[in-house]
Amino acid sequence: MSTPDILIAGLGPAGLALAAACSRRGLAVRTVEAHPGRTWSATYGMWHHQWERACAAFPELSGVPFSTTPRPRLIAPRRSGASPQFGLIAADYVVVDTAALQCALAAVCPPRMTSEEVLATADLGALAAQGTRVIDCRGAVPPDLRADPAAAACQTAYGVVLPAQHAREYLPGGAGCLMDWRTDAFGSPAKPSFLYAVNLPGDRMLLEETDLVGAPALTIARLRERLHQRLGWASPEPGTAGRAEGFADPDEIERSRGVLATEKVRFPVLPAVRPAGLETFGTAGTAGHPATGYSVGEILRSAESAADALAAGRPIPASTGVGTRALHRLGLRALLALEGPALQEMFAGFAALDVRRQLAFLDRSSKALPTGMAMASQWWNTTNATRAAVARAALLGR
Ligand SMILES: Cc1cc2nc3c(=O)[nH]c(=O)nc-3n(C[C@H](O)[C@H](O)[C@H](O)COP(=O)(O)OP(=O)(O)OC[C@H]3O[C@@H](n4cnc5c(N)ncnc54)[C@H](O)[C@@H]3O)c2cc1C
Question: Which of 177, 192, 205, 286 could pair with 318 in a Cys bridge, judged by C-beta atoms 3.0 to 4.6 Å apart?
Answer without folding.
Answer: 286
